[in-house]
Amino acid sequence: MADQSIGIGKLFGIEIKLHWTFIMLLLLTLFLSTLPPPSLSLFAFIVILFTMVLLHELAHSLVSKHYKIAVKKIILVPLGGMSIIDFEGVEPRILARIAAAGPIASIVLAMVFGALYLYLPGGALGSFLELLFLINALLGIGNILPAFPLDGGKVLKNYYEEKYDQLEATKKTVKVSKAILVLYLVFSTAYVIALPNITASTFLLLMLWNIVIALFIYGGSRSELESAYVAKYAAKLLVKNAVTRDCIVVRPNTTLKQLYSILLKKGAKPVLFISRGAAYMVSDLASSPTAKKEERILSRRVSEFATAIPKIGLNESLPKAIDRMGYEESGVMAVIGNNKIMGMLLASHVEAIIALHMRSSKVDYRN
User: Fold this and answer.
1) Over the stretch 70-108, which tens digit does the pLDDT of each residue have?
2) pLDDT in tens, 166-192
3) How far from each other are the two terminal CA atoms of the chain, in whole angstroms?
4) What is the rounded CA–CA span in Å between residue 213 and residue 141?
5) Confidence class of residue 59 from pLDDT cuts 50, 70 and 90?
6) How many CB atoms lie within 10 A of CB 354?
7) Which residues are paired to 75 by β-bridges?
8) What CATH architecture does domain 239-360 belong to?
9) Mean pLDDT value of segment 31-40
10) Given its phi and psi angles, is residue 19 left (phi above 0), alpha (psi -120 to 50 degrees) or beta?
11) DSSP string, 215-277
């Protein structure tokens, strides 16, 4: 999958990115704020909300860095934020601390803003502090719920992993998640129905929100369970069993003129190279034989037109490769053996192989 988010800077060395769907949300709320009577209150609320979400995610990331765990980036999406962290090999008790850090940070912020609201004068400042208190209280308390994909669900799973393997711990957490989902739907629906003088449009809006939250919990639980099944039953599938060698490997100082000659002989294929230990893929501009062939362009090196891609070893597991592709937001990886590019790995290819393996093993991991 291609990178679907845009970087806006770094905090504490951690890259902050906005997913394209979140950018669309910002643009939509900005547009709605211009409709008569014009008011930027909705847009300002979204900005404030996701600033607090960012602080919540930063807590996860900073605790991870404290334990020397690599943090790739933080991505803001319409339903919250995601800290992209390499959790491979991390002990369950450390994972639980990292998961709990976000809700704890939000609750502490809620207490700070609540205290300021009580002791400072009211007016516009008081309303602003009250809003910050409510947002952080909801972020903290909401994420404590022991349901996937909330932080509380991750903490519960890590607790179970002290006694059970990953799959069994995930199954138990999913059961709790489903119970939480049922309770949420029952009580939230009853609350909406009991609201006095509620209009039809408000009723529909609140019920739609309940459906969104329900799908969020259900989808998160399903995804976690599928990943746990794959991690257990497809662990013996290796990268070397799925590598495709239908690509061209060149040197980083290869000129476009030389590349075009290679492509004319071997056909249009993905072009990869390795430089200083990192893997790169040459963009279509450089690899297309139909590109303009002015001498000034043809004399340039392929390294000027390349994009870095993740790499993985031949003997790594395919489930690990899928996790890494998600971590890197990339649908392709360079496969490395003996410090050389041996081929490449495609996400769609890997997913198909894993799905076929699970079916042949009669593992019903999608239910």
Assistant:
1) 888 888 887 778 888 877 778 888 888 999 999 999 999
2) 889 999 999 999 999 999 889 888 888
3) 25
4) 15
5) very high
6) 22
7) 17, 82
8) Roll (3.10)
9) 74
10) beta
11) HHHHHHHHHHHHHHHHHHHSTT-BGGGT-B--SEE--TT-BHHHHHHHHHHH-S--EEEEETT
By CB atoms closer than 10 A (0-12, 13-18, 19+), residue 170 is buried
What is the chain's mean pLDDT, rounded?
A: 84
Tokens coding 207: 């019920």
**Dihedral (CA of 287, 289, 290, 294) sign:** positive
Q: What is the full DSSP assignment across 37-84?
A: SP--HHHHHHHHHHHHHHHHHHHHHHHHHHTT--EEEEEEETTEEEEE
DSSP 300-351: SBGGGGEEEE-EEETTSBHHHHHHHHHHHT-SEEEEEETTEEEEEEEHHHHH
Residue 291 is given by DSSP the state S
pLDDT score recorded for residue 1: 41
Residue range 303-354, pLDDT digits in tens:
888 888 888 888 888 888 888 887 777 888 999 988 889 999 988 888 888 8
Question: What's the rounded Cα separation, in Å, for the pair 99 and 150?
Answer: 9
Residues sharing a CB contact under 8 Å with residue 40, sequence separation 6 or more, in sequence order: 33
Burial of 68 (0-12, 13-18, 19+ CB in 10 A): exposed
